[in-house]
Amino acid sequence: MIVLTFFLTIVCFDQQDIPKPKLLYFTTKHCGPCKAFEAAKRNIDSIKHAVELFDFQKIELEKDPKTVEKYGVGAYPTFLVLDDNNSIRHCWTGFGGPEDFIKNVAEAITGTTIGEKIAAYKDSKSYSGAIMLARIHSAQNQLEESLFYYREADSLRPENKPSLSFFIYSTSLSLFMGPPIKKDFYNELKQASLAVLDQDFPPEVKKSIIHNLSLVAQNVLQDPGEINFWSNWEKRKKLVYLIYIVLITGLLFGIFYFKKKRKTATDDH
Questions:
Q1: Looking at the DSSP assignment, which residues form a beta bridge with residue 22?
Q2: In Å, how far from its chain's centre is CA 149?
Q3: CB burial readout 137-166, b (16+ within 10 A) else e
Q4: Digits of tens for pLDDT over the chain (269 positions)?
């Protein structure tokens, strides 16, 4: 159904003499999924035709970091669809194969702006709507909003759908690792970790989660408003500068002292 709707959209879209929406493709040099997308874009007709619907623009982190920062992109590949007013109509992260890409493109072309999507979700909450908004916010590195919608989706999840506990855990981990490190973020991560450990995940995944949890637990502070001294470069710089000043002052004093002593010894002779 998605594919049929998508190709009907292509026919209608090609017949209209209107500007193409922009598709911004954010990539980086060492991104494996980005290379998979680019190979599919060259070799798979459905993806070729999908991309032709847009004013396609490739943005590389190494060549254009300002644009990456402007849109708050923190994962690769990220796809942003802009309308005529340069408002974000749709966005998603990752490349899950041709079907997933076409599904997102179809939603972008026939859909609405992100603000309208949020308003529509508030009027009528749904599992698929919450998933879409979680992915959109994740693509823009808006982790707290993404976590909120993943939790909403999990609470609305039909019985035949798998748990979203791993997505909640991954987003919580990214949220905790962002500055400043706060105790309440750790509690969020701990709850998410325990939820994943209760699910049927491979042993290596669970081992990694336990390892991550033990590492971040070492950095949890009693006062959530403070930042761990040794994890904060600004405070470390002050200490380094102070040590340099003390050493240089001591060195200058030593040079002055020995010169004066040498001069006194010479005068005595």
A1: 55, 82
A2: 15
A3: bbbbbbbebbbbbbbbbbebeeeeeeebbb
A4: 444 344 434 444 444 455 788 999 999 988 899 999 999 999 998 888 889 888 999 999 999 999 998 888 888 999 999 887 888 888 888 888 888 888 888 878 766 777 888 888 999 999 988 888 888 888 777 888 888 999 999 999 998 888 888 888 888 877 776 655 556 677 778 888 888 888 888 888 888 888 888 777 766 654 444 444 444 555 566 667 778 788 888 888 878 777 777 777 666 65
